[in-house]
Specification:
The complex is a heterodimer of chains A (about 90) and B (about 525). Chain A is an all-alpha fold and about 90 residues long. In chain A, about 45% of the residues lie in helices and about 0% in strands. Chain A starts with 5 loop residues before the first helix and ends in a 5-residue tail after the last helix. Chain B has three domains: about 140 residues, Rossmann fold (3-Layer(aba) Sandwich), CATH 3.40.50.980; about 230 residues, Rossmann fold (3-Layer(aba) Sandwich), CATH 3.40.50.12780; about 90 residues, GMP Synthetase, Chain A, domain 3. In chain B, α8 crosses α9. Classes of the chains: A mainly alpha (about 90), B alpha/beta (about 525).
């Protein structure tokens, strides 16, 4: 198994975000461009961001290493999906 | 109230450090570092501008509408150096709440950072009186002047012209900051904290924590949370640097601690729980930290242990205090051998009062309880604030003279155990976290402690639910993180608690709601249950 692709991760994040927006009575996002900033757009705060990352770990059944997450770069959806996909790739044992 | 003059204003520590260490960094925020000289220069221009535009009888308060930026810090200092108290406003709050704070505080001047400017149109909708708007990062103020003809807008270049600053007279009873906290009625209460309250705190803590110009101090708190005042004024008193993470940086606080070379950490305990959950508290992860402070909510023993392991060279202190008693007024130093035995319900004690602060533990009639008994914590002393802004009724209800006493005490609303001997004060929960279940008095903190211990997780919140005519139908518990084997957990808890205290329903969530200050938001918990009543 190769693990989720960046696009799989993007689809998961899209569903998570839209659920959050719906809970707040806001309109869902139609698409998620690479330069969409999850924090600066106001879609998530830092705690909800952590929640989303942990939910991704649960969903794909792998732990995400927060240690290597550079928060200044990783709130943009494009780089984040690539980072998470890389993290979730099975490592050779 | 008679004003006493000739005493020390809160700004004096900063000015002394600026003289002693002009080239050392005073603040780092948004990737920008300002030396003491640079911060002093900017703050003095802001102060001179406020003084130049001040009108006779206006309220001596200035709003600071800035978020985790160097302007926020310069704004706080500029307000104080103008002889004004500061009123922190927060652009991440709903605009109606911020507008209500601005209107109620009657500020006639406001300092705004660049990222908060877009909210100013909405904020000024309620401003009937002319405002002085100081925006140190605004290159071209002309569009704003055109939009707001009744108000005065000062941008970057304009500020250069204000050099005529006059050192304010120090009135120790004058307001240093006016901080709005959530009120039980839903209307925020403005707590008036005087210069002498904060200097009493600073004078004690710089010695207690041995702060020096070599320290790099975290600022995890928003300025609308009074613990932020500790970071700023304690650091500046001794020439240390305040390091303020951006909202983004708070996603990975561990990296921030290392990148900034922090020596002093201060946060709410919930942040420890979150870092533990995300695997950031690895053994020896933060070797440079020499002091770690926690405040704002109960500190679980398990969180303190995990932190002490990650920061092996750090002293860990649990400090306690409501905004009304200025930042923190008791402290307890973690000791891996002694603390677990001194803790109650798995929560680290809150320790002993700071110098000059008197403690009284009382029953419902405000009479002192016997040693070893529990009751409401009342305190008085140099850190007791002035009361609530323009609200004598609420002030009279919270600041009381107990029977047999001559002095006024502040009612904290916190339930503590009065030490039987030399032991520390232990925090048992909020007075209002006691609920009635089928006629039994239940302390929710106790349920949380048992669940926390049995589940081996820190994030546990118990609530009374649903509301009934006589109290609550039962207890529900929410657990953050997991996974948890609920059958085993339920059995373990049932073995330790009477039936009426055993939670009827259990909910495990990745995250529980937190309020703006990062604490668990109890009022938001029923929504998590998916129930409406």
């Amino acid at each position: 198994m190769n693990g989720p692709t960046p696009n799989d991760v993007r689809m998961f994040f899209g569903a998570f975000l839209n659920q959050k927006l719906e809970d707040r009575g806001q309109r869902p996002l139609r698409d998620l461009p690479d330069d969409y900033d999850l924090l600066l757009s106001g879609a998530l705060d830092s705690l909800a961001f952590v929640e989303m990352m942990m939910a991704a770990g649960d969903h794909f059944d792998r732990e995400i290493d927060f240690e290597n997450l550079d928060p200044e770069q990783m709130t943009l959806i494009g780089p984040l999906c690539r980072f998470v996909s890389e993290q979730l790739r099975p490592h050779p044992s | 109230m008679e004003l006493r003059t000739g005493s020390r204003g809160l700004w004096t520590g900063f000015l002394r450090s600026a003289q002693l260490f002009p080239d050392r960094a005073a603040v780092v925020a948004q990737g920008t570092s300002l030396s003491y000289r640079q911060l002093r220069e900017l703050a003095i221009r802001i102060a001179a501008c406020i003084q130049a535009h001040r009108e006779g009888a206006s309220t001596p308060l200035t709003a600071v509408f800035a978020y985790r930026s160097t302007t926020a810090f310069a704004g706080v200092l500029g307000s104080l150096l103008a002889g004004h108290g500061y009123v922190p406003l927060n652009r991440t709050f709903p605009i109606e709440r911020t507008r209500s704070m601005l209107v109620r505080s009657e500020c006639r001047s406001i300092i705004v950072d660049t990222d908060s400017l877009p909210q100013m149109d909405a904020l000024m909708e309620g401003a009937d009186e002319p405002l002085l708007v100081i925006a140190p990062g605004l290159d071209d103020p002309r569009p704003y002047r055109a939009r707001w003809p009744r108000h005065t807008v000062v941008g970057t270049a304009d500020l250069e012209a204000y050099a005529d600053w006059r050192a304010p007279e120090a009135h120790e009873d004058a307001i240093a900051y006016l901080l709005f906290t959530s009120g039980s009625t839903g209307v925020p209460k403005g707590v008036m904290v005087a210069h002498r309250n904060v200097t009493a705190y600073v004078d004690h803590t710089v010695e207690r924590f041995a702060i020096t110009e070599h320290d790099a101090v975290s600022q995890t708190f928003d300025m609308t949370f009074d613990l932020s005042a500790s970071d700023m004024f304690v650091a500046w008193e001794r020439g240390a640097c305040v390091c303020c993470p951006s909202q983004k940086t708070l996603i990975n606080p561990g990296r921030f601690i290392r990148d900034q070379g922090l020596t002093v950490w201060f946060s709410v305990p919930s942040m420890v729980a979150l870092m533990k959950q995300t695997g950031l508290l690895k053994r020896g992860a933060f070797p440079l930290l020499r002091l770690s402070l926690f405040c704002g909510e109960p500190l679980p023993v398990s969180s303190a242990e995990a932190w002490a392991m990650a920061a092996p060279n750090s002293v860990v202190e649990n400090i306690y205090g409501p905004t009304e008693l200025t930042i923190a007024c008791t402290g307890y130093r973690w000791d891996p051998k002694q603390t677990p035995a001194e803790s109650e319900m798995g929560i680290v004690p809150i320790g002993a009062p700071f110098p000059g602060m008197d403690v009284l533990v009382v029953d419902e009639q405000l009479n002192e309880v016997a040693p070893g008994a529990d009751g409401e914590l009342l305190m008085r002393g140099p850190q007791m604030s002035l009361g609530y802004w323009k609200d004598p009724a609420k002030t009279a209800a919270a600041y009381v003279v107990p029977p047999g006493h001559k002095d006024m005490f502040y009612r904290t609303g916190d339930r503590v155990r009065r030490p039987a001997g030399d032991g520390p004060l232990t925090h048992l929960g909020r007075m209002d976290s006691q609920v009635k279940i089928l006629g039994h008095r239940v302390e929710l903190g106790e349920v949380e402690a048992v669940v926390r211990e049995a589940a081996g997780v820190d994030g546990v919140v118990a609530i009374g639910w649903p509301i009934t005519a006589s109290g609550y139908g039962g207890i529900e518990v929410l657990i953050e993180g997991g996974p948890v084997d609920l059958d085993t957990l339920r059995a373990a808890v049932a073995a330790r608690l009477p039936d009426y205290m055993v939670p009827r329903r259990w909910h495990v969530r990745e995250q529980l709601p937190r309020n703006a200050n990062g604490k668990y938001d109890r009022k938001a918990m029923p929504a998590v249950l998916g129930d409406n009543q």
